[in-house]
Amino acid sequence: MKSLSLAESSTAGSSNTKKVGGPTLPIKEMIVRFLKGKDCLLQLRLEIDPKLQAKSVREDERQKTDFWMSDHRFLKQCVNPFASTLQHLCIVDYGQQSIMRKSSIMSILSVTCNRLKTLDLRNMFIDMSDCHRMTSLTSLTWRCVKVNGAALRNVKDSMTNLSTLALLGVFGAEGGNLTFQHMTVLCLGLSTPAEDLVMNLPTLKKLQLKMQCPKNLVIIAPVLRYVAFNLEVPESSKVELKCIDAVPKSTSSHTVTESHINYSGQVEGAGLEELLYGAASFIPMSSLVEKNPNLKKVFLDIPCMTLAEDGRFLAPLKDVPLSLPSFDHLHNLRKLEVLNIGPGLWYSLEAKVDTLISVEKWPVINTLYLHMIPHNREASLKVLGLLLGTSVTSLKIFIHSSSPVSRDELATGIEEQVSACELRSGNIIICKHYYHLKGN
């Protein structure tokens, strides 16, 4: 057997016991018995059913060692039979309340599973202080995880061959001065602000910043090509993205002092190809665009829309300021092929349509993607008319199905705008929460 996935279902009665042939057994003992003898396992996934994860745990049960999947005794019993062959491991523990108990899971895995290549851990309190070297590990994902303060430095010291690092909802990391020679993909989602974080990443190509901003963030990535920037930078913080590859002496550094964003980049021959930007302030975006004239795809949004768990639109966030990007900066993007506008920015465009009318010259755009939660029919159609005057040759419009202004209310006006620009409107496709209108 090469691969095995085990999921504890929410229909199993008690959260930690189940009957097998009469006697009641703890679920973890069942798992250990099931895994016994499977000595050639390459891949294992242990996951608690999402509905069960959502259930709260009584206060008097939160310290029980027989309850959590990341308990050290259970882990040793699980992985020992196939520790010499296991290469891919994923463990999803009992909801976010699992971070109440500290686990030595990294110490155990680093000693017993020396062939491990990919590791995905969710809903845990991970202690990295006693982690040994894991030179075979190339991909690490932590999601909804609490860690000790020096965790990132521990990762750097023990996992020197990482190519992918995804930190999504990680609490407690204090930062550090980190170098990863082989990393190509990095997602930084720190839920508590680090003091200082300096990262030297000579092979990094894809970067996502979606986190609480550190007081000092420096990322040195000479071959960076794709950036997703969702970072609010307070006045007390400083962020530097240094994408310099054999930069000639004449190349200068551009500093945006208003937001304490410093961006250094090579003007010709290299730089970003794709930018996904989602923040209330567009000042950092202007700096990124100015220093990367070879951008081919740009996605712009403001994170101001709230959705229910099932995807229904609820309301705009009142405490997020509505702003507009400087479209003039897009004129320098001579290779721009695709512009995406997200629902938050569309809402801002509607609210500030009178300001848009004053724009004298729009950038050249080939393919335009519009993701809408329209609130005002007349304003939406005005904005669409302005954008379609930018030499658009391909248009795709996504309308959220629970928008204040429905697809049916907009459809006729949209089709008239499309026809006037000699764009052929396609079929309307109803998705779960979006209507999709396409023109070519």
From TrEMBL:
Gene responsible for this protein: LOC112274826
Compositional bias ranges of the Polar residues kind: 1-18
Region Disordered, annotated ranges: 1-20
Species annotation: Physcomitrium patens (Spreading-leaved earth moss)
Record's signal peptide: none
Superkingdom of origin: Eukaryota
UniProt protein name: FBD domain-containing protein
InterPro entries assigned to the protein according to its UniProt record, in alphabetical order: AUF1-like, LRR_dom_sf
